[in-house]
Design brief:
single chain, 5 helices, elongated
Length: about 130
């Protein structure tokens, strides 16, 4: 598996050589497959599976930190001028009406972090289909 990832060009400008790109990619992907949802989950996955991971990864400086995973993703997002658009679902508190049998209002929003602006919101019929 690491042979395939070794062919990917490393977009990082500052190459300190502390963590190999293949190690970062493989731990990140395995963490997400295992249900990880953020940088800390990637680091924690690596730490909890260290004995297994060291059988096929180099890990010259151990498991990359959460900040390393974050910086790597930021480097590939900033390089082409892309922007991350967070998508989030919310249930508006107090929007239900028991007397009329109406359920709470569920919204899904897209947010531009760079511009601190809501790009759009969509009302959902129920909470399950964000």
């Amino acid at each position: 598996m690491s042979l395939v990832f070794s062919e990917i060009e490393d977009p990082r400008v500052e190459r300190t050589g502390v963590h190999l790109l293949t190690d970062i990619l493989i731990i990140g992907i395995l963490s997400v497959i295992a249900g990880g949802k953020g940088w800390e989950d990637m680091e924690n996955y690596g730490l909890s599976k260290y004995d297994w991971l060291e059988q096929f990864l180099a890990l010259p400086e151990g498991i990359p930190s959460a900040d390393t995973f974050r910086r790597w993703v930021e480097s590939i997002v900033e390089a082409p001028g892309a922007q991350v658009i967070p998508i989030d679902g919310k249930t508006l508190k107090g929007s239900y009406d028991r007397e009329q049998g109406k359920s709470a209002l569920h919204l899904v929003s897209a947010w531009s972090s760079e511009h601190r602006l809501v790009l759009g919101q969509v009302k959902q019929d129920d909470k399950s289909m964000e």
